Amino acid sequence: MRCLRPRPSGPRQLRFGRAGIHPAGDLFAPEPSEAGLPDRGPAHRRQRPQARPDRQRHPARGGIVTAPAIEVRGLTKSFGGRRVVDDVTLNVARGEIAGFLGPNGSGKTTTIRLMCGLLTPDAGAGRVLGHDIRREGRAIKREVGYMTQRFSFYEDLTIEENLRFVAGLYDLRPARAVVRDTLADLGLTSRRDQLAGSLSGGWKQRLALAACLMHKPKLLLLDEPTAGVDPKARREFWDEIHARAGDGLTVLVSTHYMDEAERCHRINYIAYGRLVARGSVTEVVRDAGLTTLMMQGAAVHAAAKRLTGMPGVEQVAPFGNTLHVVGSDAALLQRSASAVAQETGCTLSPAETSLEDVFIRLMSQSQDNMS
Ligand SMILES: Nc1ncnc2c1ncn2[C@@H]1O[C@H](COP(=O)(O)OP(=O)(O)OP(=O)(O)O)[C@@H](O)[C@H]1O
């Protein structure tokens, strides 16, 4: 993780990292409605409904139910004429841990930024925590904790000083007590005087998590939070996320790690701007309709060479001393793999299709769509 220093120019103009505006630093910017649209007067303002935006009447039972944390449809965004988010529809239920996966540059960060009001979509609409993503970005930012991909804190301030700074951005009072409680909550108290720049990846990540939990958000948007973090710290991080989801927090987390995808309640896979798969891991694997065979023996290396490009063979991947051979036409795959197994003296057996096999398939299909 790398720290890019914000310009010390006050909360309104704070810019952090590659991504641009620090989520908290943009809290006080006017809503598009406040900035541009005509004010229809105090009478109109008085008529605004007072109902909780995250509650709505159940159409059948007439009772109050909680709306999804995220419900966006048709989100589209282009940069320089290139469509990087293309008609994305996403629903995330309250208390759900939703995984957001996809190759580099496929539009995950852009989608996250559209949903928390940091970017305006070219097309599409939706609500996050009951707030309109186009008109109520400020309300969304107040209720969302957004952990950006890169470490976005002052390296020459201590953990406590960084948290005091963030407490100030959110106007959390009494700041001293809020920071003290957050330090204790995230197990940071003993390190509170340590400079952020001297922390290991795991502790930096913990500081970042503390900063985005301090204002008690209802939704966490985590953009590759565990990149460069060791397995133990990753495990602890996920335990923490699950504990908080158990208390009702909703989490949308982008990741490239398959084991992390498997720790999500549901996953959403985006490729080149388009959402191409969603559901539980079991559903996504089942819906892909792939067959996987495992080849074992002294000659797997030769077998791999031979299998590449054969009819029905879509993927050949070595796993230690074995070979995973994957395809969508089970009969054709079996025929090719059996022939090579016989030729090379390897054994062939059925294997579970992994999420990685599925993602590689989805990625190659999407590339085909783009060309
Ligand atoms: N502000 C911007 N101006 C121009 N292009 C941008 C901007 N933000 C993102 N892009 C481009 O949009 C595409 C999608 O980027 P995005 O960061 O959303 O992808 P991602 O899926 O999060 O990638 P990664 O997994 O590498 O973080 C990339 O090609 C990126 O270069």
TrEMBL record:
Keywords: ATP-binding, Nucleotide-binding. GO terms for molecular function: ATP binding; ATP hydrolysis activity. Gene3D superfamilies: P-loop containing nucleotide triphosphate hydrolases. PROSITE patterns: ABC_TRANSPORTER_1, ABC_TRANSPORTER_2. Residues 70-297 form the ABC transporter domain. It comes from the Bacteria. InterPro entries: AAA+_ATPase, ABC_transporter-like_ATP-bd, ABC_transporter-like_CS, P-loop_NTPase. It holds the Pfam family ABC_tran. Residues 1-63 are annotated as: Disordered. This is ATP-binding cassette domain-containing protein. The lineage of its organism: Bacteria, Pseudomonadati, Pseudomonadota, Alphaproteobacteria, Rhodobacterales.
